[in-house]
Specification:
The structure holds two protein chains of two kinds.
Chain A: H1 2-22, H2 24-55, H3 62-80, H4 89-119, H5 128-149, E1 154-155, E2 164-168, E3 171-174, H6 175-197, H7 199-209, H8 211-216, H9 221-247, E4 249-250, H10 254-269, H11 274-293, H12 304-318
Antiparallel strand pairs in A: 1-4, 2-3
Chain B: H1 2-19, H2 24-29, H3 32-54, H4 60-72, E1 80-81, E2 84-85, H5 87-105, H6 121-143, H7 151-165, E3 174-177, E4 188-191, H8 193-215, H9 220-240, H10 265-272, H11 284-307, H12 310-320, H13 322-327, H14 332-358, H15 368-381, H16 386-415, H17 425-439, H18 448-456
Parallel strand pairs in B: 3-4
Antiparallel strand pairs in B: 1-2
Helix pairs in contact in B: 3-4, 6-11, 6-14, 6-15, 6-16, 7-8, 7-9, 7-14, 8-14, 11-14, 12-14, 15-16, 15-17
The chains are: A mainly alpha, B mainly alpha.
């Protein structure tokens, strides 16, 4: 099996190498797209990983919370700010910050509500029970969006500037990509600070490690879990905003596919591991961009899903602890 | 909370009954048989009044009432015929008889309030096919306790097997094994559907084993995700399969169509009066219905026999406690793989049959939604209980095909709204999943054993790398 893995990775490196040599500028342009995708995936993947770390539950509805985030912020931009395609910088910044705040708060509340309704009553039940309710909640959220916005795409105006930040030897980096990263990085730093440095973060880590012992130390476990869901939901809300701005099309079923891709990213990095989720998300983002963009022998966007899920399956089967996770007796 | 609501309702009920002169003590004093009869009579009377007031009344409603009372009230357990205990077969045989005769009395049935008319024959065929799939999934989810979110992959595999071996998909080949209704000069593989069904089952079971072998070591929720992954990959292969290295395997998004219908050929038609070709017959849907009934019976038989076999008991043991089961000498991998293969087999047969009924296999039929739909049937009906799963499958596939549209029409007609109820179908199924898991995790018709596990909780966090082979 290690031989097979080495072979696969070797083929991948060879393929990337040939593409790089054949057309370096194109390769780097595609890489920037991958970086942007990865930033959006990272925010969603972190939500999966936070929840899994604390409850050992795959929060199936998380992708749909992300989708709601996209709809919330899209609605903010269209209905509250009435923005067209190229607004002035001041209004743009205000609109983005306001939509970000609204989407994060709203999605945090939605996610905490989902936890309260569907997962909290099942704390002592067999672990497949909350997974099944999670699937149910995912469909319910989709239909909430369907009832709200209908089955067609909500198209968000292209409010991000599309000019180049720099253009060097045919490689260009546009402002909209930079803005996505500029929003993602502070959110990630804030999350790290929250988990590592604050009292609430300490309570989260303690609850994740041993729920009973944490309760004995005076931590309000249910409140900590609710808080974790709110944080995860807020991250999904931020991702929803970025998705709405960057891809400018959101629909009720957007969250399902992207949620699965982000979950794959979380597993790839090692589920329950925060830096791992970011690393995994960047890997998946690059893989997707290379697959859809590179010209020499790439399978193309028709196969993206299959490739991502194959990665998921291979990782779960051969290295369930992921890239950065530690091997535990339970496996991940 | 649930108990408090139930308590309030029952208290109110007894106060009302006491007012008409039947206090609790006197009711308890009556013999059990009388109580059953009275209860059943009251419910049937309520139902009749509802049909009379809000449905479309036909005299046949009285006949239905009599049949229901006959089925429910007497106790058949101890009936013997010449010393043979036939009691436990009476109700299943009666239900089967009613099902077989369904096409003949469908036309004279009354209309139920809200839900409208009884399901049409084409709906009945689909209900039977989904019953078969749900029973197949029940092997995996109900018996062995492995959550499979990619069951649609098996359904797709079965449908495409029918597409490959009973249509003109491979135009360079030419092989006809007992197929009926071909136009002269048809190319491609044309096997008789009776041959394609077991072929599809076996091929799908092999796919199940291939999927299962590497993944069944994983813990429950990881396994669910991996199966979901396979369930997403298979339709994508079907969608993109019109050009696999230059080879047209699945005809892409167009799907494979037409697929041959089942039939027995002219010789059997002449001598035994078996229909030569279902697709040409006047009572097309009835023939498909009866055939699917036979397939469902086979599935039920297999389910019941396997459940009580050594293998079935091993599945239950693994479901309850994987480590204890492996310590008792149950080979975990082999047993789980068998559950997968068996479930896959029936999914494949059902898929092939459905493809033959619809005369086509299209990649868009194989979404994740279908996996959840089938899972919902198993969970609503009662994981591990054959009758529960049959009920869940029939009810939900009826809702899918006719029920929701009828209910929606009723709501819009009475409340002057413009809701498109079938659009929210999967939200409704999601709500069913959540409500069932929260309030009655054992399902509507539970298996006793599963109910106990779900209420007391079991030690179900097995070590993912416990492999004993």
């Amino acid at each position: 099996m290690p031989a097979l893995a080495t072979f696969l990775v070797g083929m991948l490196v060879l393929w990337l190498g040939v593409n790089l040599v054949k057309s370096p500028s194109y390769f780097f342009t595609i890489s920037f797209i991958g970086l942007t995708n990865g930033a959006v995936y990272a925010l969603v993947a972190l939500g999966y990983t936070l929840v899994y770390g604390i409850l050992e539950l795959i929060n199936f509805a998380h992708g749909d919370v992300f989708m709601l985030g996209g709809l919330f912020s899209g609605t903010m931009i269209i209905s509250a700010f009435h923005l067209g395609d190229h607004p002035s910088t001041g209004i743009l910044i205000a609109a983005i910050l306001a939509s970000l705040a609204v989407a994060m708060v709203a999605c945090g509340l939605v996610n905490a509500t989902v936890e309260f309704i569907a997962y909290r009553p099942l704390r002592g039940a067999p672990r497949l029970a909350p997974l099944i309710t999670a699937i149910g909640m995912s469909f319910i959220l989709q239909d909430v969006a369907l009832g709200w916005k209908g089955p067609s795409y909500l198209s968000v105006p292209h409010i991000l500037p599309r000019g180049n930040v720099f253009s060097f030897a045919g490689v260009s980096y546009t402002w909209e990509k930079l803005i996505v990263v500029m929003i993602t990085v502070p959110v990630l730093v804030a999350l790290m600070w929250l988990v590592q440095r604050t009292r609430q973060g300490k309570a989260m880590r303690a609850t994740a490690q041993d729920r009973d012992a944490a309760a004995m130390m005076g931590i309000n476990v249910n409140r900590t879990i609710s808080f974790t869901f709110m944080i995860a939901g807020a991250l999904a809300g931020a991702a929803g905003l970025l998705y709405a701005l960057y891809f400018s099309e959101v629909r009720y079923d957007t969250g399902f596919q992207l949620g699965l891709i982000a979950f794959t990213a979380a597993v790839l990095g090692g589920i329950g591991n925060l830096p791992g989720a970011v690393l995994g998300a960047l890997c998946i983002g690059f893989i997707q961009a290379f697959n859809e963009g590179l010209r020499w022998h790439s399978p193309g966007s028709d196969w993206t899903q299959s490739i991502v899920f194959s990665i998921l399956i291979l990782i779960l089967v051969f290295r369930p602890e992921g890239l950065l996770g530690e091997r535990t007796p339970e496996g991940a | 909370m649930r108990r408090r609501i139930a308590g309030t309702i029952s208290q109110g009920w007894w106060i009302a009954l006491g007012a008409v002169g039947l206090p609790h003590e006197r009711w308890r004093g009556l013999p059990v048989r009388t109580r059953r009869a009275v209860k059943a009579a009251i419910w049937v009377a309520i139902a009749l009044i509802l049909v009379w007031q809000f449905g479309v009344w036909k005299t046949s409603a009285l006949a239905v009432a009599v049949v229901v009372l006959l089925l429910v009230v007497p106790r058949y357990e101890n009936v013997t015929v010449r010393g043979v205990r036939v009691g436990k077969w009476i109700i299943p045989a009666a239900v089967l008889g009613l099902a077989i005769a369904y096409p003949y009395y469908l036309g004279s049935m009354p209309q139920v309030p809200i839900f409208g008319p009884f399901p049409a024959m084409s709906t009945m065929v689909v209900m039977m096919i989904f019953t078969m799939m749900a029973l197949g999934l029940n092997f995996v989810v109900g018996y062995a306790g492995l959550l499979d979110l990619g069951y649609v992959a098996f359904y797709a595999m079965g449908a495409y097997m029918a597409g490959w071996f009973a249509s003109s998909q491979f135009a360079n080949q030419n092989l006809n094994l007992g197929a009926v209704g071909l136009y002269p000069g048809a190319t491609g593989y044309h096997f008789s559907i009776w041959l394609v069904l077991p072929m599809a089952g076996i091929a799908t079971a092999i796919v199940g084993v291939i999927i299962g072998l590497p993944t069944l070591r994983l813990r429950g929720d990881y396994l669910a995700i991996v199966t979901l992954g396979f369930g997403e990959i298979m339709p994508q292969i079907a969608r993109n399969g019109n050009n696999l290295f230059g080879f047209n395997l699945t005809n892409g998004t167009g799907g494979i169509t037409p697929i041959d219908g089942p039939g027995f050929g002219n010789w059997l038609d002449k001598h035994l009066h078996l229909p030569a070709n279902y697709l040409n017959a006047a009572n097309f849907d009835n023939l498909f219905f009866w055939t699917s009934l036979v397939l469902v019976l086979l599935t039920i038989f297999t389910s019941a026999r396997l459940r009580d076999s050594r293998l079935g008991r091993a599945w239950v043991a693994i479901r309850e406690d994987e480590i204890a089961a492996s310590a008792m000498g149950i080979p975990l991998m082999r047993t789980k793989t068998w559950a997968y293969a068996t479930g896959a087999f029936f999914g494949g047969v059902a898929g092939a049959y459905y493809a033959s009924y619809k005369s086509g296999a299209f990649p868009d039929d194989f979404f994740f939604n279908i996996s959840v739909f089938i899972l919902c049937m198993v969970i609503l009906g009662g994981m591990g209980n054959i009758w529960g799963v049959i009920f869940g499958a029939c009810f939900l596939s009826y809702l899918d095909r006719e029920g929701l549209a009828n209910v929606g029409a009723w709501i819009n007609g009475h409340f002057h709204t413009h809701l498109d109820v079938p659009l929210y179908e999967f939200g409704i199924f999601g709500a069913i999943l959540v409500v069932t898991m929260l309030f009655r995790p054992e399902g509507l018709i539970p298996s006793q054993r599963r109910a106990m596990e779900l209420h007391e909780g079991v030690h179900d966090e097995p070590l993912y790398d416990v492999v004993t082979e």
